[in-house]
Amino acid sequence: MFTLAYPSTPEEAVDRLARAAPGETAVLGGGTDLLLDVESGRTTPTELLSLRKLPWRYLRWERQSLVVGSTLPLRALEVDPKVRTQLPGLWEAIVDVGSPALRSRATLGGNIGRCSPVSDLLPILLALDAQVRIVGPNGRREVPVDAILQESRRTTLGSADLVEAVVVPAAAPCTYLWQRVQPVNDISQVGVATAYAPTPPHWRIAVGGIQPRARRLVEAEGLLRSARPSDFEAELAAQEAARRSTFVTDRRATESYRRRLVSVLVRRAIQRTLARVPPVAGGPSSSP
Amino acid sequence: MRFRTDAAPKAEGAVVYAPDLEAPGMLWAALVPSPVAHGRVVRLDLEPARRQPGVVAAVGAAEAVSLLPGGTGDGAAPVFPSPEILYHGQPVAAVAAETLGAARAAARAVELEVEPLPVVSGIEEVFPEWPTRVALPHPQVVGHVHARRGDVDGAFGAADLVHSETYRTPGVHQVALEPHACLAEVSGDTWRLRSSTQTPFGLRSDLAESLGIPADRLVVEGTWVGGGFGGKGGALIEPYALVLAAAAHRPVKLALTYAEEFQLGRTTLPSIIRLDTAVKGGTVTGRRVRLLLDSGASLPGRDFAVGYSMGFLLGPYRTDTFEIEGYAVRTHKPPFGPHRAPFAPQSVFALESHVDGLARRLGVEPLEFRRRNVWKEKDRTAYDQPVGPFGLDACLAAAERTLRDWRRGLPPDHGIGVGCGFWSTNAGEGGEARLELRPDGLVIYEGEREIGNGSVVRGLPTVAEKVLGLPASAIRVAYGDTAKAPFDSGVYGSRTLAALGQAVERASRALLATLASRLGAATSPTLELRDGHVTVVSGGRRVRLATLLTPEERTVGGLVAEGKFYAPAHRLDTSFVTDGQVFPYRDFTGGAHLAEVAVDRETGHVRVVRYAAFHDVGTAVDLALVRGQVEGGVVMGLGTALSEEMRWEPTGRLGNPDLLDYRLPRLRDVPPLQVEIIEGFAGAGPWGAKGMGEPPIIPVAAAVANAIADATGTRVHELPLTPERVARALKLL
Amino acid sequence: MTDRPLKLVLNGTPRTFEEVPDAERLLDTIRWRAGLKGTKEGCRTGDCGACTVLVNGDPSLSCLTLAREVDGDAVTTVEGVTRETVGRAVVKAFEENGAVQCGYCTPGFVVALSGLLAGRSPPPSTEALLDGLEGNLCRCTGYAAIQRAVAAAREAVR
Asked: Which residues contact B713 (CB under 8 A, 6 or more apart)?
């Protein structure tokens, strides 16, 4: 069994992590995943480092970006009207994760730290090219979310690094679509995020439910050359996305079904995003 | 308007369920699971567990034998495997400790050495090809049924069309929200058990037989049941708790985790069903039904499901030329167990899909095809039993009107399906009721607690209320353990109101007869409550009950009457049965369902848009309760139809023992639901009531599957109808 | 850490619990230390909602909450919720609409719905309330009677 530690400053937390033996200390965010792992014996940390006393439960807008403190519950993003209008794809990814009570605990920081291949949040963060603010033994730095993700429960974060905040550019019309056995409170078989960004490459496509982790599909993005791709171009990009993704068969879906889903959902997501692009293509504002 | 007396206490959290039980000096139990689905226990060392802090007792096969008065008890089904392990997670030992944490830690410390043996994880491993003739005895066949009526070969030989299909259904779990839990205590020579059970008396006889404890030394007290659905019938966890309590000489509490609930539960198991129908001149002339049913670790001769299912696979259709054959296939899973209308939803999914497709092939509107062929009151069943009052055609007629309505303006990619089925109230052995009429009201004394449908807390008092004339506020139900309460078979088979209700009705009439004789009246009096006093009304005369009671009756117990209802023996001419056993049915009820679905033609995702259920209930003794059963049964059926599936790996391990991947219907999944109650076809219960706990789940998967076929022209032959399965049927991958 | 007592404002009353292990779930503190068994233990993995309590007014899964993570917070269980006007109205609506069968899930629904309704004037839409209950499983009622009860409770607290 473990004990709990409550660092009250980021520096104290990092210091504690830096001094811990490997595998002994686990970082406790919302705990929705970690506590199940501990209960089942999948991980056996002797200490959990609780982030609850750190001043990271915030949401603020910095210029064109949404900055989300890493311990802010998803629920707070879900009920924020500006998030819903400015980042409809992010809102779509959040609103169907688990139940409201679960969303009151789950966090963006936890999603990044756990790096689950079936996370509904990672594809949209990738499509929006979110930046992650990290605090570690050598101070603070900011890196793209894409540079952090590796595989399930594994990231490039150092053992004493903590996610402090996630910066989500809000200038891009975006969409998140998923497929599940049942729509409510279920795990996505695949999730697809698309965004139309003001800077090149304009079209971004990211897919989750693939191995080893959610990722951008730049080859498919490259097939979308105009601000208003035709249905045919969208279809070509979707096929390319399906072709370039690595799928596996597991208890939730087979490899071939996941491939099929990506080829359908990427096209639909592009079309829905297109409907959210203001008439003057590439403009900074968006409408859902 | 009167409401269930248990509703507010339950909503306030004031009702004690088995997982809430505590007793002075209580220990907590944990089970030691087998790591393999098939194997031999080579070495079991409990000493490391006993050395753990807080541990009071650790027991395995050897301890169970020495602690049970009957020694090994039922040698064929020992408490712990000795030495053969039959399914993954099967408890090989159990530990009791001062805290749950200590018990779990100690369970992990038990040293277990197992020699793995080859695992048979499913039917296909035993029969990779459909067996034409299985030489019996067969090591993996634990039950066989074969029967034939009429000239089947002739019918198929002369047919101008033979419709042949194969269907598959998966394992399905009851998933009562309350996990199994019990509290056991052994003092002197009395073995006491408090458990969440649908059948306190059935549990007692089950344990007496399997553990060798004389029934009169075993006392079972049923607690409130947090959902049963068939999963809390016979013994499951109770033997472990009893053996631990005997070893520890202290009360022992055992509650399953949800993962254990999934791994150890006695559930519906997978099947393969083959149906062939011969048609000549547009008329069905013969049918062949063949069933391979996974029976898990069921013992030879103990399988009930194959024979029980055969009638459902023939359906509520006039059939006098048929051949049925079924095999119970032994695999390394827990034994097959009952689940709300055992295996009927699966049978009906196959048959009703088959009938629907046949109707379409014949160019007949599927609902109309059913109306032409279903039993009417004067018909006889496939087993040549009289059908009697049976409202299925009336249900279909009502459904036909709704169907016409829904057909108007049906959007593209939407479809409407119909499914229908019958149920037969299973009266069980029977039941008894003791009524105590006291100066201030009536007490109905029962041995079984409410499991949720309301038949005990509300149904039984309603029967007494209607006979006696007393207001509901003057009637209460009191509960006792098996040592004190009158016998009843338990809550299963949709029997409580229909069968036990008759015992209450008889006891109520006996009370009135006694009062009539005390008054010297020729006719039965009625009762009323005046200023809190039970008052007897007879021929315009009002007498306080108290004045008619003996001094003893006034002080203790009141005026007592007992009523018994034991089901009449049901004879079936079984000369057409060549092997095994088929079951007679009785007291038929029918239901017809309509589902409208929208199918995503690119992904195979199915959304149920709206749903309607029409049920022949005999007489609705309590409309709110009936409605609750229909709504609840339909939604449980939607789970069976769309998402519920136990997935075993080739190793025999259950791959989805949790609610994340065993997906139940949730609030936002549920479509608008229309319920129509059809009365006028009297059943055998009080005032013509028929049992309604099980019928509503039966036609659901069939209705949804037929709606998908209606929307797409493609039939899915396997449950559940997941997006991926539909996508495959649509040839999208 | 372990030697420090755990403090909760439990159903409005400050309570102190000694020797609470850091790993203890709030669910177990409530049921076995405080003896409040109205909070039900279901799946213990956050999927069924039977263990829902209010933490500082918000519906929370007590099975996925470490007791020490809510040290000092206000925790309200079904026993506390149903002493208040809103909770009583919710219980009445469930009773009158036949939304209680086996009852094992009911306290979770009552707490979650009361949490969504309390102190909100006007109350959220029925649709929003139903969305708010999507984490609560019921196996008996098919949710139909529960939906009727939610609409009735909303009307009652308006």
From this structure: none
